[in-house]
Design brief:
- The chain is built from 14 helices and 13 strands.
- With 344 residues, the protein is an alpha/beta fold.
- The protein has two domains: 234 residues, Aspartate Aminotransferase, domain 2 (3-Layer(aba) Sandwich); 94 residues, Aspartate Aminotransferase, domain 1 (Alpha-Beta Complex), CATH 3.90.1150.10.
- It has a seven-stranded mixed β-sheet with strand order 2-8-7-6-5-3-4, with helices on both faces. The protein has a four-stranded antiparallel β-sheet with strand order 9-10-13-12, with helices on one face.
- Helix 3 packs across helix 10.
- The protein starts with a strand and ends with a helix.
- It binds ligand TLP.
- Ligand TLP binds next to helix 3.
- The site of ligand TLP has 14 residues, from helix 3.
């Protein structure tokens, strides 16, 4: 199968499996797991933040950040298509008691003027806005890398207004590679950052939350509350070490494959790549009536290719380390054959 549904489908590498098998473990709730500690130390060094916390998933990491930074009844500011709002099961409302204020962005980010308008004055009628969240790369904007100048401007304004700031950096290493900038520089403005080990970096499980020591100490308690206090978690943290030390270095290949696939798909009559492909995500729109999105997905599936729809006319394809150049060629070949069949 050529699985382009997401980079979350990546399987652990041989080195990960070996490192996992050999990992030294302890009870991490007692803070006695040396491999988890090593991963957290490595993460805080790479991100140049005081401390780090290993968590089960990106969704859990974001939720813990929300709970740690806010109180129930607070307002949080999010880009309208952000993952935290769109795909995290409404945890911000159900579990955080938070009121989202959504600002529609362009290329994954809104402007400072939009933020200024959104932030309401201190008034007895309004909830208090206490947290601003951004997302880099921005998933629903098609893996866009945020404009760092805008990020700095927005975050600095939010801080002046007394808000705390969190980055959903699930794919921050993709952003770093595409913009040729260190993750620590991209994350410098934020109070906290969540990044994922289990997407393009191929670890089977796990994300990490980074921030200052006080934030992480409080976050650790919320992780326990949510049932995320894991015991011999070093077995999975070991894969995370390989993810950070080895897999971050090869993401450029995924970006090149995405470029190649996007260019070839865009050349096909009736197909239009609608995002600016900077990282590993392609958003393809079907612009004529040869077939519906469902027909194409079914045709691909029958030929061993998986992708997913993001709307009635659009499909998302994501490249990752288990997608090779020859896989890309196969996708193009099969697609052209399917079109010929549909037009017959
Ligand atoms: N994204 C998944 C799906 O949930 C849509 C995907 O296939 O892209 N932040 C961002 C920006 C994400 O893209 C994701 C996962 C998460 C957070 C959540 O991570 P997990 O899946 O580990 O909870």
């Amino acid at each position: 199968m050529i699985d382009l549904r997401s980079d979350t489908v990546t399987k652990p590498t041989d080195l990960m499996r070996k490192t996992m098998a050999e990992s030294v473990v302890g009870d991490d709730v007692y803070r006695e797991d040396p491999t988890v500690k090593k991963l957290e130390e490595l993460a805080s060094n790479i991100f140049k933040k005081e401390a780090a916390l290993f968590v089960a998933s990106g969704t859990m990491g974001n939720l813990i950040a929300l709970l740690t930074h806010t109180r129930p009844g607070d307002e949080i500011i999010l880009e309208a298509e952000s993952h935290i709002y769109y795909y995290e099961v409404g945890g911000l409302g159900r579990l955080g008691g938070l009121i989202p204020q959504l600002i529609p962005g362009k290329d994954g980010i809104f402007s400072i003027e939009q933020l200024k308008k959104a932030l309401r004055p201190d008034d007895i009628h309004f909830p208090k806005a206490t947290l601003l969240c951004l997302e880099n790369t921005h998933n629903r904007a098609g893996g866009r890398v945020l404009d760092q100048e805008k990020v700095k401007e927005i975050v600095s304004f939010a801080k002046q207004q007394g808000l705390r700031t969190h980055l959903d950096g699930a794919r921050i290493f993709n952003a770093a590679v595409a913009s040729n900038t260190d993750v620590s520089t991209l994350c410098e403005p934020f109070d906290s950052v969540m990044f994922c080990l289990s997407k393009g970096l191929a670890a089977p499980i796990g994300s990490v939350l980074v921030g200052n020591q006080d934030f992480i100490d409080r976050a650790r308690k919320y992780r326990k509350m949510l049932g995320g206090g894991m015991r011999q978690a070093g077995v999975i943290a070991a894969a995370g070490l390989v993810a950070l030390e080895v897999m971050t270095k090869r993401l450029g290949e995924d970006h090149r494959n995405a470029q190649l696939l996007a260019t070839k798909l865009d050349e096909i009559d009736g197909f239009q790549v609608v995002n600016h492909v900077e990282t590993n995500i392609i958003v393809l729109e079907l612009t004529n009536n040869d077939f519906t999105v469902q027909d194409l997905l079914t045709g691909w599936r029958q030929n061993g290719i998986l992708a997913s729809s993001v709307s009635e006319k659009r499909i998302r394809l994501v490249t990752h380390y288990q997608v090779s150049d020859s896989d890309i060629e196969k996708v193009i070949r099969v697609t052209k054959e399917l079109i010929l069949q549909a037009r017959r």
